[in-house]
Design brief:
mainly alpha; 0% strand; 60% helix
């Protein structure tokens, strides 16, 4: 089996970031979210802290309140 180790990981989109905020609020741990998206755990931390895709938390909060 040949694996491509030189390919970059998936790049998170703004919509992914919105979903990640909701997953965190639902109790998912960061390492599981990172595995789901095939990204480094640092990217999940960046979403959580607002450095990656700023504004995604506000939209997630708005959408999440409609669901709950």
């Amino acid at each position: 089996m040949t694996t491509k180790t030189n390919e970059p990981s998936y790049q998170l989109t703004f919509n992914d970031a919105v979903e990640i905020h909701m997953m965190l609020w639902d109790g998912w741990i960061q390492s599981r979210i990172a595995a789901k998206y095939d990204v480094n755990g640092g990217r999940i931390s960046e979403v959580k802290n607002g450095t990656l895709h700023p504004g995604s938390k506000a939209l997630a909060k708005e959408l999440y309140s409609e669901l709950v």
